[in-house]
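Protocol step 4 of 6.
Sequence for Low temperature requirement protein A (Curtobacterium aetherium) entered exactly as in the expression construct, tag removed. Do not edit the line below.
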Amino acid sequence: MVPRDPTQRHRAASPLELLFDLVFVVAVGLAATNLHEIEAEGAVTSAVLSYALVFFSIWWAWMNFTWFATSFDTDDWLYRVTTVVQMAGVLVLAAGVHAVMVDGDFTVGITGYVVMRLALVAQWVRAAVSSARYRPSAIRYAVGVTVVQVLWVASLALPHEARPFAAPLLILGELLVPVWVESRAETTPWHTHHLAERYSLFTLIVLGEGLLASANAVIDALEHTEHLGSLLTLAACGLVVTVGMWWIYFSREQHDHIRDLRSALVFGYGHYVVFAVAGALPAGIEVAVRADAGHVDLSSSAVAATVAVPVALFVLSIWALAIRPSLSLRANAVVVALALAVLASVAVPTLSLPATALLVVAVVVTLEVASPRGARAPSVPVTAR
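Step 5 output, C-alpha coordinates:
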Protein backbone atom coordinates (compact mmCIF):
# COMPACT_ATOMS: atom_id res chain seq x y z
CA MET A 1 0.00 0.00 0.00
CA VAL A 2 2.24 2.77 -1.28
CA PRO A 3 0.97 6.37 -1.28
CA ARG A 4 -0.80 7.68 -4.37
CA ASP A 5 0.73 10.49 -6.40
CA PRO A 6 -1.04 13.73 -5.35
CA THR A 7 -0.23 15.26 -8.75
CA GLN A 8 -1.60 12.35 -10.81
CA ARG A 9 -3.47 13.63 -13.86
CA HIS A 10 -7.05 12.64 -14.62
CA ARG A 11 -7.58 11.10 -11.16
CA ALA A 12 -11.27 10.29 -10.90
CA ALA A 13 -13.50 8.47 -8.44
CA SER A 14 -13.12 4.72 -8.75
CA PRO A 15 -16.06 2.30 -9.26
CA LEU A 16 -15.46 1.07 -5.71
CA GLU A 17 -15.83 4.61 -4.35
CA LEU A 18 -19.06 5.05 -6.30
CA LEU A 19 -20.39 1.77 -4.89
CA PHE A 20 -19.35 2.88 -1.41
CA ASP A 21 -21.34 6.10 -1.88
CA LEU A 22 -24.49 4.17 -2.75
CA VAL A 23 -24.56 2.67 0.73
CA PHE A 24 -24.71 6.17 2.14
CA VAL A 25 -27.81 6.89 0.06
CA VAL A 26 -29.60 4.43 2.35
CA ALA A 27 -28.24 5.98 5.56
CA VAL A 28 -28.94 9.58 4.52
CA GLY A 29 -32.44 8.65 3.33
CA LEU A 30 -33.32 6.97 6.63
CA ALA A 31 -31.97 9.90 8.63
CA ALA A 32 -34.06 12.36 6.57
CA THR A 33 -37.17 10.17 6.88
CA ASN A 34 -36.93 10.01 10.65
CA LEU A 35 -36.20 13.74 10.79
CA HIS A 36 -39.40 14.66 8.98
CA GLU A 37 -41.50 12.20 10.99
CA ILE A 38 -40.28 13.59 14.31
CA GLU A 39 -40.61 17.18 13.09
CA ALA A 40 -44.17 16.49 11.96
CA GLU A 41 -45.02 15.39 15.50
CA GLY A 42 -43.94 18.79 16.79
CA ALA A 43 -40.64 17.81 18.43
CA VAL A 44 -38.47 20.01 16.19
CA THR A 45 -35.62 20.59 18.64
CA SER A 46 -35.13 16.92 19.53
CA ALA A 47 -35.49 16.02 15.85
CA VAL A 48 -32.75 18.42 14.79
CA LEU A 49 -30.37 17.39 17.59
CA SER A 50 -30.78 13.67 16.98
CA TYR A 51 -30.45 14.18 13.22
CA ALA A 52 -27.26 16.22 13.72
CA LEU A 53 -25.77 13.38 15.79
CA VAL A 54 -26.74 10.64 13.35
CA PHE A 55 -25.60 12.65 10.35
CA PHE A 56 -22.23 13.23 12.00
CA SER A 57 -21.62 9.48 12.14
CA ILE A 58 -22.62 9.13 8.47
CA TRP A 59 -20.54 12.08 7.31
CA TRP A 60 -17.50 11.28 9.44
CA ALA A 61 -17.30 7.68 8.22
CA TRP A 62 -17.64 8.81 4.61
CA MET A 63 -15.10 11.60 4.98
CA ASN A 64 -12.46 9.46 6.67
CA PHE A 65 -12.76 6.81 3.98
CA THR A 66 -12.52 9.50 1.27
CA TRP A 67 -9.39 11.16 2.64
CA PHE A 68 -7.71 7.81 3.21
CA ALA A 69 -8.58 6.68 -0.31
CA THR A 70 -7.19 9.82 -1.91
CA SER A 71 -3.83 8.99 -0.34
CA PHE A 72 -3.60 5.18 -0.26
CA ASP A 73 -6.25 3.61 -2.52
CA THR A 74 -4.64 0.50 -4.02
CA ASP A 75 -7.89 -1.04 -5.30
CA ASP A 76 -6.50 -4.55 -4.83
CA TRP A 77 -8.49 -7.44 -3.37
CA LEU A 78 -7.58 -6.73 0.26
CA TYR A 79 -8.43 -3.05 -0.04
CA ARG A 80 -11.78 -3.96 -1.64
CA VAL A 81 -12.64 -6.52 1.04
CA THR A 82 -11.82 -4.07 3.83
CA THR A 83 -13.95 -1.43 2.12
CA VAL A 84 -16.86 -3.88 1.90
CA VAL A 85 -16.57 -4.38 5.68
CA GLN A 86 -16.91 -0.61 6.07
CA MET A 87 -19.98 -0.73 3.83
CA ALA A 88 -21.47 -3.42 6.06
CA GLY A 89 -20.91 -1.13 9.03
CA VAL A 90 -22.79 1.65 7.22
CA LEU A 91 -25.76 -0.66 6.69
CA VAL A 92 -25.78 -1.62 10.38
CA LEU A 93 -25.60 2.05 11.30
CA ALA A 94 -28.49 2.78 8.93
CA ALA A 95 -30.50 0.03 10.61
CA GLY A 96 -29.98 1.76 13.95
CA VAL A 97 -30.92 5.27 12.81
CA HIS A 98 -34.56 4.96 13.92
CA ALA A 99 -33.60 3.64 17.35
CA VAL A 100 -31.16 6.52 17.89
CA MET A 101 -33.47 9.28 16.71
CA VAL A 102 -36.75 8.02 18.15
CA ASP A 103 -35.85 5.92 21.20
CA GLY A 104 -32.44 7.29 22.12
CA ASP A 105 -31.01 3.75 21.86
CA PHE A 106 -27.44 3.97 20.57
CA THR A 107 -26.56 0.26 20.65
CA VAL A 108 -27.06 -0.71 17.00
CA GLY A 109 -25.88 2.67 15.71
CA ILE A 110 -22.63 2.59 17.68
CA THR A 111 -22.05 -1.05 16.68
CA GLY A 112 -22.24 -0.20 12.97
CA TYR A 113 -20.16 2.93 13.47
CA VAL A 114 -17.39 1.07 15.30
CA VAL A 115 -17.31 -1.61 12.59
CA MET A 116 -16.71 1.10 9.98
CA ARG A 117 -14.03 2.82 11.99
CA LEU A 118 -12.10 -0.32 12.97
CA ALA A 119 -12.08 -1.46 9.34
CA LEU A 120 -10.41 1.85 8.55
CA VAL A 121 -7.91 1.19 11.35
CA ALA A 122 -6.95 -1.99 9.50
CA GLN A 123 -6.28 0.11 6.41
CA TRP A 124 -4.06 2.49 8.38
CA VAL A 125 -2.12 -0.44 9.84
CA ARG A 126 -1.54 -1.76 6.34
CA ALA A 127 -0.36 1.68 5.22
CA ALA A 128 2.02 1.83 8.20
CA VAL A 129 3.54 -1.52 7.26
CA SER A 130 3.90 -0.59 3.59
CA SER A 131 5.07 3.03 3.66
CA ALA A 132 8.06 4.02 5.77
CA ARG A 133 7.59 7.67 4.84
CA TYR A 134 4.06 7.90 6.20
CA ARG A 135 4.42 5.25 8.94
CA PRO A 136 4.31 7.77 11.83
CA SER A 137 1.10 9.32 10.52
CA ALA A 138 -0.51 5.94 9.84
CA ILE A 139 0.35 4.61 13.29
CA ARG A 140 -1.03 7.73 14.96
CA TYR A 141 -4.25 7.43 12.98
CA ALA A 142 -4.60 3.76 13.92
CA VAL A 143 -4.01 4.46 17.61
CA GLY A 144 -6.16 7.60 17.77
CA VAL A 145 -9.14 6.08 15.98
CA THR A 146 -8.96 2.88 18.05
CA VAL A 147 -8.92 4.78 21.35
CA VAL A 148 -12.00 6.77 20.43
CA GLN A 149 -13.84 3.60 19.32
CA VAL A 150 -13.11 2.00 22.69
CA LEU A 151 -14.66 5.06 24.32
CA TRP A 152 -17.74 4.83 22.06
CA VAL A 153 -18.26 1.21 23.13
CA ALA A 154 -17.67 2.12 26.78
CA SER A 155 -20.34 4.82 26.51
CA LEU A 156 -22.95 2.08 26.06
CA ALA A 157 -22.38 1.21 29.74
CA LEU A 158 -23.43 4.71 30.81
CA PRO A 159 -26.95 5.33 32.12
CA HIS A 160 -29.41 5.88 29.30
CA GLU A 161 -29.94 9.54 30.16
CA ALA A 162 -26.18 10.24 30.23
CA ARG A 163 -25.35 9.00 26.72
CA PRO A 164 -26.44 12.14 24.85
CA PHE A 165 -24.01 14.15 27.00
CA ALA A 166 -21.11 11.79 26.29
CA ALA A 167 -21.66 11.94 22.53
CA PRO A 168 -20.42 15.55 22.04
CA LEU A 169 -17.18 14.76 23.90
CA LEU A 170 -16.59 11.67 21.77
CA ILE A 171 -17.35 13.64 18.61
CA LEU A 172 -14.75 16.19 19.70
CA GLY A 173 -12.29 13.33 20.15
CA GLU A 174 -12.99 12.11 16.62
CA LEU A 175 -12.46 15.58 15.17
CA LEU A 176 -9.19 16.06 17.02
CA VAL A 177 -7.55 12.85 15.75
CA PRO A 178 -6.75 14.21 12.24
CA VAL A 179 -5.60 17.52 13.73
CA TRP A 180 -3.25 15.68 16.10
CA VAL A 181 -1.91 13.35 13.42
CA GLU A 182 -1.44 15.76 10.52
CA SER A 183 0.15 18.47 12.67
CA ARG A 184 2.64 16.11 14.32
CA ALA A 185 3.88 14.12 11.33
CA GLU A 186 4.21 14.52 7.58
CA THR A 187 0.90 15.45 6.00
CA THR A 188 -0.62 12.58 4.07
CA PRO A 189 -0.63 13.07 0.25
CA TRP A 190 -3.98 14.55 -0.77
CA HIS A 191 -5.13 14.73 -4.36
CA THR A 192 -7.10 17.97 -4.33
CA HIS A 193 -8.96 17.43 -7.62
CA HIS A 194 -9.96 13.94 -6.52
CA LEU A 195 -11.20 15.24 -3.17
CA ALA A 196 -13.21 18.02 -4.81
CA GLU A 197 -14.87 15.47 -7.08
CA ARG A 198 -15.65 13.15 -4.17
CA TYR A 199 -17.26 15.98 -2.22
CA SER A 200 -19.27 17.00 -5.26
CA LEU A 201 -20.54 13.44 -5.67
CA PHE A 202 -21.69 13.29 -2.04
CA THR A 203 -23.44 16.63 -2.55
CA LEU A 204 -25.36 15.06 -5.42
CA ILE A 205 -26.38 12.20 -3.13
CA VAL A 206 -27.89 14.46 -0.48
CA LEU A 207 -29.52 16.77 -3.03
CA GLY A 208 -31.01 13.74 -4.76
CA GLU A 209 -33.10 13.10 -1.67
CA GLY A 210 -34.70 16.52 -2.26
CA LEU A 211 -35.75 15.46 -5.75
CA LEU A 212 -37.35 12.35 -4.27
CA ALA A 213 -39.29 14.50 -1.81
CA SER A 214 -40.55 16.68 -4.67
CA ALA A 215 -41.65 13.54 -6.52
CA ASN A 216 -43.56 12.42 -3.41
CA ALA A 217 -45.40 15.75 -3.45
CA VAL A 218 -46.52 15.07 -7.03
CA ILE A 219 -47.63 11.56 -6.08
CA ASP A 220 -49.68 12.92 -3.18
CA ALA A 221 -51.19 15.56 -5.47
CA LEU A 222 -52.38 12.90 -7.90
CA GLU A 223 -53.88 10.85 -5.06
CA HIS A 224 -55.53 13.81 -3.31
CA THR A 225 -56.89 15.99 -6.08
CA GLU A 226 -58.52 18.38 -3.60
CA HIS A 227 -54.97 19.56 -2.79
CA LEU A 228 -53.74 19.39 -6.37
CA GLY A 229 -52.81 23.04 -6.83
CA SER A 230 -50.96 23.50 -3.54
CA LEU A 231 -49.08 20.21 -3.79
CA LEU A 232 -47.98 20.80 -7.37
CA THR A 233 -46.80 24.28 -6.35
CA LEU A 234 -44.88 22.70 -3.48
CA ALA A 235 -43.33 20.12 -5.82
CA ALA A 236 -42.34 22.80 -8.34
CA CYS A 237 -40.78 24.97 -5.63
CA GLY A 238 -38.96 21.97 -4.20
CA LEU A 239 -37.52 21.19 -7.63
CA VAL A 240 -36.42 24.81 -8.20
CA VAL A 241 -34.81 25.00 -4.75
CA THR A 242 -32.96 21.68 -5.16
CA VAL A 243 -31.67 22.54 -8.63
CA GLY A 244 -30.74 26.01 -7.42
CA MET A 245 -28.70 24.55 -4.56
CA TRP A 246 -26.96 22.27 -7.05
CA TRP A 247 -26.23 25.25 -9.30
CA ILE A 248 -24.82 27.26 -6.42
CA TYR A 249 -22.58 24.44 -5.20
CA PHE A 250 -21.10 23.81 -8.65
CA SER A 251 -20.76 27.47 -9.59
CA ARG A 252 -17.05 27.53 -8.65
CA GLU A 253 -14.07 25.19 -8.69
CA GLN A 254 -13.30 23.96 -5.19
CA HIS A 255 -10.05 22.00 -5.35
CA ASP A 256 -7.94 25.13 -4.88
CA HIS A 257 -9.42 25.60 -1.40
CA ILE A 258 -7.38 22.62 -0.17
CA ARG A 259 -3.91 24.11 0.07
CA ASP A 260 -2.51 23.19 3.48
CA LEU A 261 -3.58 21.56 6.75
CA ARG A 262 -5.63 24.52 7.92
CA SER A 263 -7.51 24.98 4.66
CA ALA A 264 -8.04 21.22 4.36
CA LEU A 265 -9.61 21.09 7.82
CA VAL A 266 -11.83 24.08 7.09
CA PHE A 267 -12.92 22.60 3.76
CA GLY A 268 -13.41 19.07 5.10
CA TYR A 269 -15.07 19.92 8.41
CA GLY A 270 -17.08 22.82 6.99
CA HIS A 271 -18.79 20.48 4.58
CA TYR A 272 -20.58 18.85 7.51
CA VAL A 273 -22.95 21.83 7.49
CA VAL A 274 -23.28 21.74 3.69
CA PHE A 275 -24.14 18.04 3.64
CA ALA A 276 -26.31 18.00 6.77
CA VAL A 277 -28.59 20.87 5.75
CA ALA A 278 -28.85 19.56 2.18
CA GLY A 279 -29.90 16.22 3.67
CA ALA A 280 -32.45 18.01 5.87
CA LEU A 281 -34.15 19.78 2.96
CA PRO A 282 -36.17 16.73 1.80
CA ALA A 283 -37.42 16.30 5.37
CA GLY A 284 -38.71 19.88 5.24
CA ILE A 285 -40.44 19.27 1.92
CA GLU A 286 -42.09 16.13 3.31
CA VAL A 287 -43.24 18.10 6.38
CA ALA A 288 -44.77 20.70 4.06
CA VAL A 289 -46.60 17.95 2.17
CA ARG A 290 -48.04 16.56 5.39
CA ALA A 291 -48.90 20.04 6.61
CA ASP A 292 -50.92 20.63 3.44
CA ALA A 293 -53.06 17.66 4.44
CA GLY A 294 -53.29 18.88 8.04
CA HIS A 295 -51.26 16.00 9.47
CA VAL A 296 -48.63 17.89 11.48
CA ASP A 297 -48.52 19.35 14.98
CA LEU A 298 -46.54 22.42 13.95
CA SER A 299 -47.33 26.07 13.44
CA SER A 300 -47.25 27.36 9.88
CA SER A 301 -44.06 29.29 10.66
CA ALA A 302 -42.37 26.15 11.97
CA VAL A 303 -43.39 24.26 8.83
CA ALA A 304 -41.90 27.02 6.67
CA ALA A 305 -38.72 26.97 8.76
CA THR A 306 -38.11 23.27 8.03
CA VAL A 307 -37.38 24.29 4.42
CA ALA A 308 -36.13 27.86 4.74
CA VAL A 309 -33.53 27.24 7.44
CA PRO A 310 -31.71 24.38 5.62
CA VAL A 311 -31.72 26.34 2.35
CA ALA A 312 -30.33 29.49 3.97
CA LEU A 313 -27.65 27.59 5.85
CA PHE A 314 -26.65 25.74 2.68
CA VAL A 315 -26.19 28.99 0.76
CA LEU A 316 -24.26 30.66 3.57
CA SER A 317 -22.02 27.65 4.25
CA ILE A 318 -20.97 26.97 0.65
CA TRP A 319 -20.59 30.72 0.10
CA ALA A 320 -18.20 30.91 3.06
CA LEU A 321 -16.27 27.78 2.06
CA ALA A 322 -15.84 28.19 -1.68
CA ILE A 323 -17.60 31.12 -3.27
CA ARG A 324 -16.76 34.22 -1.22
CA PRO A 325 -13.16 34.73 -2.49
CA SER A 326 -14.32 34.84 -6.12
CA LEU A 327 -16.88 37.62 -5.63
CA SER A 328 -16.66 41.36 -5.27
CA LEU A 329 -17.68 43.00 -2.01
CA ARG A 330 -21.01 44.02 -3.53
CA ALA A 331 -21.77 40.53 -4.88
CA ASN A 332 -20.86 38.97 -1.52
CA ALA A 333 -23.23 41.35 0.23
CA VAL A 334 -26.03 40.45 -2.19
CA VAL A 335 -25.58 36.70 -1.66
CA VAL A 336 -25.62 37.07 2.13
CA ALA A 337 -28.64 39.38 1.99
CA LEU A 338 -30.56 36.90 -0.18
CA ALA A 339 -29.74 34.03 2.20
CA LEU A 340 -30.94 36.10 5.16
CA ALA A 341 -34.09 36.95 3.21
CA VAL A 342 -34.77 33.23 2.91
CA LEU A 343 -34.69 33.03 6.71
CA ALA A 344 -36.90 36.09 7.00
CA SER A 345 -39.51 34.52 4.70
CA VAL A 346 -40.56 32.33 7.63
CA ALA A 347 -42.39 35.38 8.96
CA VAL A 348 -44.88 35.00 6.07
CA PRO A 349 -45.47 31.22 6.08
CA THR A 350 -47.93 31.08 3.18
CA LEU A 351 -45.40 32.72 0.87
CA SER A 352 -42.23 31.27 2.36
CA LEU A 353 -41.67 28.37 -0.03
CA PRO A 354 -42.30 30.32 -3.27
CA ALA A 355 -40.19 33.16 -1.87
CA THR A 356 -37.40 30.72 -1.02
CA ALA A 357 -37.45 29.36 -4.56
CA LEU A 358 -37.30 32.87 -6.06
CA LEU A 359 -34.51 33.93 -3.69
CA VAL A 360 -32.44 30.85 -4.57
CA VAL A 361 -32.87 31.71 -8.24
CA ALA A 362 -31.72 35.24 -7.41
CA VAL A 363 -28.56 33.82 -5.80
CA VAL A 364 -27.90 31.76 -8.94
CA VAL A 365 -28.35 34.82 -11.15
CA THR A 366 -26.01 36.84 -8.92
CA LEU A 367 -23.31 34.20 -9.19
CA GLU A 368 -23.72 33.88 -12.95
CA VAL A 369 -23.53 37.64 -13.48
CA ALA A 370 -20.54 37.96 -11.14
CA SER A 371 -18.65 34.98 -12.58
CA PRO A 372 -15.79 35.93 -14.91
CA ARG A 373 -15.47 33.84 -18.04
CA GLY A 374 -13.85 30.50 -17.24
CA ALA A 375 -14.27 30.86 -13.46
CA ARG A 376 -17.31 28.65 -13.05
CA ALA A 377 -16.88 24.93 -12.45
CA PRO A 378 -17.33 22.57 -15.41
CA SER A 379 -20.43 20.41 -15.50
CA VAL A 380 -18.21 17.32 -15.44
CA PRO A 381 -15.63 17.16 -12.62
CA VAL A 382 -12.23 18.08 -13.99
CA THR A 383 -10.71 14.87 -12.67
CA ALA A 384 -13.08 12.81 -14.79
CA ARG A 385 -11.87 14.30 -18.07
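Step 6, annotate. The mean pLDDT is 88.
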